[in-house]
Amino acid sequence: MLPQSSTGLLAALLLSALPANADGLYTKKSPVLQLTPKTYGSLIANSNHTSIVEFYAPWCGHCQNLKPAYEKAAQNLNGLAKVAAINCDEDENKPFCGQMGVQGFPTLKIIVPSKKPGKPRVEDYQGQRSAKAIVDAVVDRIPNHVKRATDKDLDKWVAQNEDRPKAILFTEKGSTGSLIRALAIDFLGAIDVAQHWSFCPGADAEPKIYEGELKKKPITEFLSQFAAPNPDATGEAAGDSKPKSKSKAKPTKNGKPESREDAVENQEPEVKPTQEPVAAPSIPSLETLEELNSKCLGPKTNTCVLALVADPEKANVLSALSEIAHRHSQRGAQLFPLFDIPSANTGAQSVRTQLGLGDSNPVELLAINSRRGWWRRYETANDLSIAAIEAWFDAVRLGDGAKEKLPEGIVDAPQDKETSDHDEL
Ligand SMILES: *[C@@H]1O[C@H](CO)[C@@H](O)[C@H](O)[C@H]1NC(C)=O
User: What is the annotated signal peptide range for this record (predicted)?
Assistant: First the structure.
């Protein structure tokens, strides 16, 4: 029995003995995953999923300000990527925060799995500290293991790796959404996932068709009939797509292991000698200012995309654009006209100047709608993959994302007869 007078002292001793992380910014209920150096290894560095990690100190004002946006980002990324935080004020975490190069709080790093397990690519996130900007940056970096199958190579893809079930998403969307990418990661090595233009064609085998909503939980349940998801499968997603596509899983048997490459994005359809080569015609080049004005900067021209690309990247970018245009035309889908603007075209420099782009960026892809007076820049010029560019085209087409107002004087004043009259997509 304690004497009455010592209870106050006892309470004070107990309080100071509580672990310091009781003072961390995020509670147990928070959607933000709380890390220690140990769990960083197992949950983040060894994950097949992309993660974002906040290194913070509970006393830091900017960290406290970030908290609501960060928790919202965690909610929106639930099922798509991991959102975690580590309290660098804790003694046992300090050396780790130091090793990670943390010099101020909060520091946000995006961790992207590489081909080598346990050796992810770590990038500093320096974008805006809003939920949307964080979500966009993370979603952009979700690895894409979804095979983009064309009519030509779908059968071949289905036939390979026979022991593995296959799931095919039939969609009219050109880009590969975050939900399907996250699912492909959850089932990496267990179920091969592809995306195919347009809707479900007649199939020979007995496909199981999923006709539910495009939400992560029910799709995961559906796919789990065929193979269990991986240990670090993420939870339910907020859901990023409209339920307008169907997906179909086709169980198959007996086969050899596939090279992972086959499932990775940007794989050009393989051209076998026995097949007709898939030749993507080059996109037109606008050599003169007059051509540029008439095709893209006329008072009545609709959305067009200009590629201003300096040399080392030129061939790559133009071939990616040709490929995208070609794929669209193969499936009879509309795409805005794409033009290559050689730097010798006097218009090229004036577009850069008038839009305030500067010269530093050797690759500029610009969507311009002169008739409506807006333009947009392809911001992630460090990712020039077909998938990334196509995702941007989708965003432009669907009107997602911010448009800039075209400055006065950039649109060619005189009415031009050659203006294209295609519809707004
Ligand atoms: C990552 O993917 C591989 C298949 O490539 C799988 O075997 C492994 O379990 C996955 N890792 C986790 C942590 O889920």
Answer: 1-24
Q: Is 272 left (phi over 0), alpha (psi -120 to 50) or beta?
A: beta
Distance 351 CA to ligand 1 centre (A): 47
Where do the CATH 3.40.30.10 domains begin and end in the chain?
4-139, 289-405
- Reply yes or no on domain 289-405 having CATH 3.40.30.10: yes
Alpha carbon nearest to ligand 1 atom 1, residue: 48
What pLDDT digit, counting tens, does each position of 295-339 carry?
999 888 889 999 998 877 788 889 899 988 888 887 767 788 999
Residue 263 CA to its chain's centroid (Å):
16
Position 50 pLDDT exceeds 60: yes
Distance 254 CA to ligand 1 centre (A): 21
What is the CB < 6 Å shell around ligand 1?
46-48, 188-189, 230-232
**What superfamily does domain 4-139 belong to in CATH?**
Glutaredoxin (3.40.30.10)
Report the nearest-CA residue for atom 7 of ligand 1: 189
- Per residue in 176-218, pLDDT (tens digit) is 889 999 999 999 999 999 988 755 544 455 678 888 888 888 8
